[in-house]
Each structure stands twice: as structure tokens, then as C-alpha cells.
Amino acid sequence: MRQSPTLRPTAWPRSPRYPYVTGVLLLLLAAAEVLHSRITSTTVLATLPFVVPPLLWRRSEPRIGLLVVPAALLNFLFRPELLLTVAVAGVIGLYSLARHRVLHPAVLITGAITGALLVNAGHVAMGVYDLGGRAPAVGADGSLSYFTESFVLAVGVVATVGVADAFRSREESRQAREAAQRELIAMERRHAAAQERAAIARELHDIVAHSVSVIAVQAESATYTTPDLSPPARDGFQQIAASARSALTELRHLLSVLRADDAAEDAPVLPQPTLDSLDALLEAHRSGGGEVTLHTEGTRPPLLPPSLELTAYRIVQEALTNARRHARGAAVDIRLSYADDEVRIRITDDGPGPQGSPHDSGGHGLSGMRERANLLGGRLTCGPAGPGGGFLIEAELPVRAGAKSFAEGVYE
User: Looking at residue 211, what DSSP letter applies?
Assistant: First the structure.
């Protein structure tokens, strides 16, 4: 049976409950030692609360060790028979200071050993090492044995700080490995995406670009090779050729973006169309034989988000494309309404209605318009205009959501 990660012994110290459980156990141990040893010293009892209870918050506030370690040394000074609770608490407090690098290890070791020497010197001065009623003479033979406790404490300090620093280094190495692994996975994904974009670019170049270029050449040459061509027909062919050349230009820029990120950075960046570009779009529709009327209501805000203007332009562009494709000759009416918090677009035509609507085309134009509106936090609805025929598209684009989407990087 596979052991749960939370139940593994190595994972338990990383649990959020670990400091509280160990702290409560130390509190119980301290109470047992005080009762068992019948400790009545006011100084010992007064310093004990500064040794154990603060360890409950050692993970969220590791600097609490700066209180625990001196309090443990002070408790030891007034009770040479070192309590087990005080010894364990002092080690835990010192470990927390070193583990979280509250102080540099060298500073921490120097300070802790200095405190141990002062406590040892206090024990000597207080006559703790009384030899048959004679005070210990520092400097006499064997007097170095009086400082054995300093040596033991120094070894414990160095070992505790060394172990804590080693665990810290291992944790930093593990985090660095995980970060490197995440970066490697991200690089592999970017590489796979770049390869996919390159494959799409090849398909567009080999199929779509070739077909559009053929259209441009045939439309251009038709004005010279077709005899008795009327002026309107000649202008129509020229318009087809111009539209094809414009499509080839946009396709070349799209291919430069798809092929590679570096190529996209070097490629010239053309300004995205805005609401100011609607006049040229409507004129292009009229030059192809279409009929379109634009009505504007309200006052246009001075600073509309670029993403909102681009979305509105693309919705009108797609609506005109659908009208030319599915309702040839139909008159298109566009109403653009400005408000303080949103922009509304209402597009209708007097075509044949649902039988010739883009619902039956199997294309992606309407879904693309909905996706653009949804990205801005707006909505788009479409359907039959009424019993008499025609098709209706209505969009509501919130201004504030558009500003947020642009700030977050929603680009064409």
C-alpha cells in the first residue's frame, strides 16, 4: 500500500501543524519537569515562559528564536541542572534562527558561544563547582575542567547551526532544480508551439498565398486580355486585384509572426485598425457593389481602449463579408451607439433571411465575433431580423472591461 505524502516522516516537519504539535508537547514536558523536580525558584519559573511557548510561532516568525535562546541560557544560569525542556527548546530556537538565516551563521555561532561562556563563568562565580567547601581556583591545575559545559554547549551550537544551514542549502537546491525543470518544460512547450506555428505558416504560404496571388494576377490581366470590357467591369477587376494584393500583404505579415518569435520581433508592426478605419472599410464595400449606411449615436469617448476599437472594427468587417457572401445585393444598415460605459453595434440587412444567413454556411465568422466580444466581457447576439427577412447582429462592448483586457495583453 502506497503511503500518503502527508504521512511520510520526511514530510511531517513541513506540515503547518508541526510547530504547534511539538510546541504543545514541550509545554507538557515542561509542566511535568516542574512538578517532578518541585521547582520553586522564581527566576527559573519566570524565564521558562519565554523559552517554550514562543516556539509555537517559530515558523511564521522565526525571529522569535532571538528571545528563546537567551531565555534558555538565562534559565540554565539559575538552574545548573539543565532542564530537558530548556535544552530542547534552546536547540529548536537556535535551529529556527539558522534555518531561516535570521542572522549569518558566523554571527549566530559567535553570539551563542559567547552566551554559553558567560553562563559558564556565572556558574564558576556562583560557586556551582564547589569542591569540598573550597571555591574553585581558576588557573590552578585542572581548572579548565570548570569550562567543560562551555565546550559541550559550543559543540552543540556549531552542530545545530551546521545542520540547519545544510538543510537550508538543500532546500534552496531543490527549489532551484524545480525552477529549472519548470523553465525547461516551458521552453519545450514554446519550442513545440513554434514548430506548430511554422507548420501552419508553411501551409498558408504553399496553399492560401499561392491561390490569392493567382487571383491577383488573373484579375489584373483580365483588364488587358478580355476584349470589349465595360468600364464598370474593368474597375471591378481592378478592385479585385487590389483586394488580393492587400490580402497578400496582410498574409505576409501574419506568416512572419507565425514562423518564429525572433522573426516577429524583426517584422514591421502595422497599426491595428480602429473605428477611424470604418470609413475606408465601408467605401471598400460600396466599391464592390454593396450598399451600406452608417449611423452614429451619442458622443464617442476620447480614450477608447484599442482592443475595443479593434473588436468593433472586426465585427463590422465580418458582418459586411457575410452580407456580400450570403445576401448579395442586400442593403446593410449599421448603427454605432456610444455611451459612457459601453459601445453598442447593431447591424441589419434586408437579405433573404435565415435561408441565406451565415448560420448555414458552416464557417467560423459568427463564432469568431462572439469570442472577440466575450474577451472584452461583452456579448454578441445574431439571428433573423424579423418575419420579413434579413439578418441582425447586435453587440455590446463594455468600455472598462476593454481597458482591462488591453492591459492584460489581449491583442489581435
Answer: H
3-class SS of residue 341: coil
**Residue 333's closest CA among 390, 256, 388?**
390
Q: How far apart are CA 18 and CA 229, in angstroms?
A: 90
CA 92 – CA 161 distance, rounded (Å): 10
Give the CA distances from residue 309 to residues 21, 218, 273, in Å, rounded to whole numbers and listed in that order: 59, 35, 8
Hey, what's the cell of 214? Answer: 493567382
| Distance from the Cα of residue 381 to its chain's centroid | 33
Torsion angle, CA of 220/221/222/228, rounded to 10 degrees? 120
Given a contact cutoff of 8 angstroms between Cβ atoms, the answer to whether 237 and 223 are in contact is yes
Superfamily of domain 278-407: Histidine kinase-like ATPase, C-terminal domain (3.30.565.10)
Nearest to 49 by CA among 21, 27, 65: 27
Q: Provide the whole-model pTM.
A: 0.47
Task: Tell me the pLDDT tens digit for each residue of 90-134.
Answer: 999 999 999 999 999 999 999 999 999 998 888 888 877 765 555
Tens-digit pLDDT profile for residues 250-303? 777 777 766 655 444 444 445 678 888 899 888 888 877 788 999 999 988 877
Compute the Cα dihedral for 175, 179, 182, 184 and give only its sign: negative
DSSP label at 132?
T
Burial (CB < 10 A; 0-12, 13-18, 19+), residue 180, is exposed
Helix (H, G, I), strand (E, B) or coil at 6: helix
d(CA 4, CA 408): 39
Domain boundaries, the chain: 5-130+142-183, 278-407
